[in-house]
Amino acid sequence: MRRLLPQTLPVWVLLIVIAGLLISQVATLYIVSRDRAAANDVVDLYRLNDRAYSLVQLMHAATPEERKLTASGLFDPTYAVTVSDTPAVTSSIAGDDELAELEDILVGRLSKFGVTDARVRRDPASQDTDEPGSFTNGPDAGQVERDLLVLAADFAQSDKLTASLRFADGQWLNFTEPITPAGPILSFNSVPLYSLIAGLIVVMSIWSLRRVTAPYRMMETAVKRIGNDLKSPPIPETGSHEIRGAAKAINSMQARLLEHVEDREHLAAALAHDLRTPITRMRLRLELLRNSAVREALAHDLADVEGIASSVIDFATFEVTEEKAERIDFWSLVESIADGFEQVSFENDETRSRGLICIARPVALKRCVTNLVQNAVTYGKRAHLSLGKSDHTITLTIRDEGPGIPAAQIDAVFGSFVRLEQSRNRQTGGLGLGLSIARSIARAAGGEISLKNHPEGGLLTQLTLPLAA
Amino acid sequence: MDCARRRLTAPDDVRVELTMAEFNLLQTFVKSAQRVLTREQLIELSGGDADYSFDRSIDILVSRLRRKMEDDPKTPKLILTVRSGGYQFLPETTSE
How many CB atoms lie within 10 A of CB A97? Predict the structure, then answer.
């Protein structure tokens, strides 16, 4: 059930608008139809009253035989008029209050013509649908003629009011009066107009919703982009007031974040850099000591500290340096790096194509690929490189022969200072900065690094970069 | 080719990465363009590292350079092989 519900704000609002539209339209139609039915009722009673008056006026002075003649002259299947000795409405008690009142009115109005009793009954529609013959349904029938025909058929099938009036001499005048049929509220002809209006409203609400939610969507993409690359260019501060406000807020947030991060990087770099001087001094002083196991151990420790300092400097300065992005022949870059490692084999060496061009900062990209290859060689003994290309991306796949990484820890290895190997052994790797540096370089160039375990063993590292035109 | 910063840029502005040995060899070729150089000369001129002291290593370097620079490495137009002599770097060179 939850899955069927819309997940986005605009769809929700849209659904509410449509539902509201439907409810208000249905309510309006209902009100209109009720009013129309009530108006019809009064008109029907008025017509019956009127007709009774004219019929009685015509007949009250005549003899019973003359009345019969007149009635047959006025005969019409819908408005049957008969004169007889018995009333067509046998019950003298009216069906409801409305009819009772009508009877009283009839008697009151017609008493001056000698009418002594009036009975009115409501009859359900008769089943015999005798076609009214007055209108021909020919192919050349016009619009008005067709409408009349439809109306006549409706009248023939609608409920009837039957009235019986007693003249002074005891004869009854019976006639029927069809109740005005309730036409369809929504005629077929007005459906297109109706749906056009509904469609317009929906389109307008979609449009206004898009405008309303534009800042949200813009903020989402902007924040996502800043998450990937803090140095991405600021978003343009244009558009409506709200969008401009959102853009301005995001831009200032990005600027402050960047300032903050750069401060930290500069601090780290400065610290690591300043460490070098005392380390060098210690190294020189060590030389003055006499040869001993302690001196060896101290020298070893110093080398470690020096290594840590320089990798921190690398990590910090890579972010800070202002290297310009260039168009780079990725194949030559990978091959140059592969050349530096004995344990690396280049798989599709022969299918060299010059089309693998990407835009990145050359030294940084070299660093990125070197880190990945270095990892593969260090933890996986040998690395097999292959290059591929799709419509918009270049893919460098590195497969090693190591044990791989437990699936649960694949995301964790990208973190700074994360090393899966618990021993802080300087021989097999550094501080755990390699992958996080490589990934931030790849992301800065619009690419991504993914890791997964190869089904046949070994870790599969994939670097994808956007292909430059 | 920027010798000071040791970098090579293709005519279409694409940066081509070379290893140190490849760059040294290319530099040698460019300096003595159009001359036929024997393998021994090449080793000597490009800094004669002991690692590259046998003939085949020059052949490997040349084939790498060709792959990185030629449009079609099978039919080289820049670095030609001269039978029983060595290699020749064909293009006209200009320096800035």
Answer: 8
